[in-house]
Amino acid sequence: MTTPQRFTSVEARLDAAAHAVLARLPATGWSGAMVEFVVFGIKQGWAALFGGALLGLIMITRFGWFEAMPIARYDFLFLAAIALQAAMLGFKLETWSEARVILIFHIVGTLMELFKTAAGSWTYPDPSFFHFGNVPLFSGFMYAAVGSYMARINRIFDIRLTNYPPRWLSVVLAALIYINFFAHHFLPDIRYGLFVAVFVIFLPVSMHYRVHRSWHRMPLLVAFLLVTFFIWIAENIGTLTRTWVYPRSYAAWLPVGPDKFGSWFLLMIISVVLVTLVHPPRAPDRE
Questions:
Q1: Predicted TM-score of the model (pTM)
Q2: Is 90 exceeded by the pLDDT of residue 81?
Q3: Domain spans of the chain?
Q4: Cα separation of 153 and 36, whole Å?
Q5: Residue 127 φ/ψ, nearest 5 degrees
């Protein structure tokens, strides 16, 4: 299998410049570990570039938007998300394969939004011109931001996986998770059975990733939980800014409940499986 290119041409130049600086920094002991930790944080931020920018715009428009503006807040976010996507491709900060992943996530997310808003799970309180049904079109980019992060982190950290389950099994599990997001409104909710299935299938899987000088290893389930936690934080920011509103917090903001944490955890599985369809899992090199 051909190893995918880790960096775009622009990222390769940035990486070379960064290595010129990092080469002069400590490589061992506590100082070396701190260098590795800082690089880890910077790379995480770079992987979340699209999502971080979109979240920043959500916060800015909540506290700096007025009814007299010539365009609705949701429409601005939609056009801004398109501009961000075009800029990342134009300035070679993102690959076309990652753009395809974002498109897939946008479609999957928008379909879910259409159903969930119709079922009353949450609402978008502000008006918009660019919408489909009760769903402003920018909302699909919030799912796309997750897809962008998952695809970018895969190559930026050169992620390898051991004991990854057969892809057909992961696809079946992801399909059941996605179907349950809709079906539990009419049929018994099987999410707890899905949690067990995720645990059994992914417990043996380890993720190997390269930060700067060293390779590191982490159970994939732990990685799922960490990413889910930060998505949960982002969702709390989304509800705090009244970008979308749950029925229980329509009168006054309340933190997003633990049930949503579980939902995002299951959505993580769908995210990982969709990314593996574009970037097949790779085992660590023998050396």
A1: 0.87
A2: yes
A3: 9-278
A4: 16
A5: -75, 165
